[in-house]
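Final report, Chapter 2: Outcomes

The project's central promise was a pipeline that accepts a single protein chain and returns its three-dimensional structure in a standardized token representation, suitable for archiving and comparison. That pipeline is now operational. To close this chapter, we reproduce one record exactly as it appears in the project archive, with the input sequence first and the structure output second.
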Amino acid sequence: MRPSYRDLIHTAYEYVAFVPAEPLTDTIKRGQYEISGLVKTGSDERERGNRRAAPLRMDASRGDWSDIETLRLAGDRRDDDFVDLFIDEVIVADIGEGTGGWEFSGGSYSVELR
């Protein structure tokens, strides 16, 4: 990697780390989400968003975004905290607990906001 690229990338990361986040838009908080990837609820674990199983669809407008927005505005960008809150406050609010809670144990996911 060229030193000039390395410096440019470093500057971009510093900027992102120190620029305060803006509040989430209504499009994000009221959107319809489709999640593809490995999803588990109870003993049912399957790859969603393919020919055999539709993506996990949810209506984000039913969720409580306050804790997610608080973390975001405080600059807390840890994925695990966000995922846990998104499951508890947004997904469960729309589609329920399921038979044993929702788990996303895969390594890669696709999330579409409609």
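Archive annotation: The mean pLDDT is 82.
This record, like all others produced under the grant, will remain available to the consortium after the project formally closes.
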